[in-house]
DNA sequence: TTTCATTTGTCCGTATGTATC
DNA sequence: CGATACATACGGACAAATGAA
């Protein structure tokens, strides 16, 4: 229930029903007809997504997530949700859809042994006709037995949820700067050596079983990856 | 109080008192002599740092965070804590320590008007004799009236905490790829055009007032910025 | 400066639901 | 199936910060 309330609050923020700050807990309690604790749990969720900052004695203030004109991807929304804002406008060209065996890197990150079977998907994604990102994804075949080409052209996470009831519970995120690798150059025909902002994610579901490892390289030189960190902590920070 | 319990649980994990999983909530309730709600809030904090995975009906399992060959800065630890691991080994060369007036960019992010007085600190930081990062920081003079050269050579946040009782409560983080700007080239004598992983942070204290805007450019081409994102969410993700 | 109502932060006890084993 | 363990929700109490009178 508090999930639904959280979703609704986020919706109100997006629709600018709430502009500068949220109504007080008392007002929200009244509005949603639930206890204060439930409201607070809902607000916790919204805060965790970096949309609010909380001020004791004052209220909840809405964060403006912008970097001037530069495009921003909010990673605090959690895996799968981060891209949703742009996801509907993205088109995907599937450059590879194949079974492979885990190498050292993949085995390390997926907590499996070398040689375990994986599905490899390489996609070039476009936004408004512009190259947006290139994404290498590896799925554990023990979890995701099969992926159709049609699914790979759309939202894979959606298909995985539909067919295997797997959705992302949490994720580890690594951000670095890289260039395209040989396979990516060959299949895209892009041969320049540009440094690309790169996001590597290990996605976990349910009991925190890693089921997916993906590396996304963004072509847009202006792109910003955003996330919010808060200090839950009272004190010191020494 | 639940902060202290969270800290203690983390300590027990680090000391391997708890190896595979945590004691049950009932046992922890008994051990710390607090209510179950308080235990759960403490555990929430530990989870948020990515140290635990929670399994309904089963228990809390300790995450084994795998190490990588590439150097990693863990930003999930929260603002101010992220750099602590390396901070003590960093030496800082202060390239600029001056009063400036806020420009458009700074005003936007610090939620102030153009022309407000700021302190600008430009530091070149080294790790084991190697260039590690270059950091531009702007402090609101209304909050931080003065910074000494000695403080700038050490930990500025520590000095700010000591002199003004200001510590970071939460932060907005933007990660992008940039190159050095003119002032940075001039003052460092570095004139190549390398793409650098760049972290822009707006730091808040008292949860509401932005007091610092800093941009850090990392020289290490292998560096990874890490953070953990969890889904608090039960369900769907549609 | 003090006072006071508002608002968020913390903690408690209890009850019920649901997943795991 | 029953026992255990985590998830959700309610209601109440007091503390602490804010902001306006």
UniProtKB/TrEMBL annotation, chains A, B:
Highest taxon above the source species: Bacteria
SUPFAM superfamilies listed in its UniProt record: Chorismate lyase-like (SSF64288), Winged helix' DNA-binding domain (SSF46785)
Sequence ranges assigned to domain HTH gntR-type in this UniProt record: 1-65
Gene3D superfamilies with a match to the protein in the record: Chorismate lyase-like, Winged helix-like DNA-binding domain superfamily/Winged helix DNA-binding domain
PROSITE patterns xrefs: HTH_GNTR
Single GO MF annotation: DNA binding
Gene Ontology biological process terms from the UniProt entry: negative regulation of DNA-templated transcription
Record keywords: DNA-binding, Transcription, Transcription regulation
Protein name: Transcription regulator
Organism encoding this protein: Paucilactobacillus vaccinostercus DSM 20634
Lineage summary: Bacteria, Bacillati, Bacillota, Bacilli, Lactobacillales
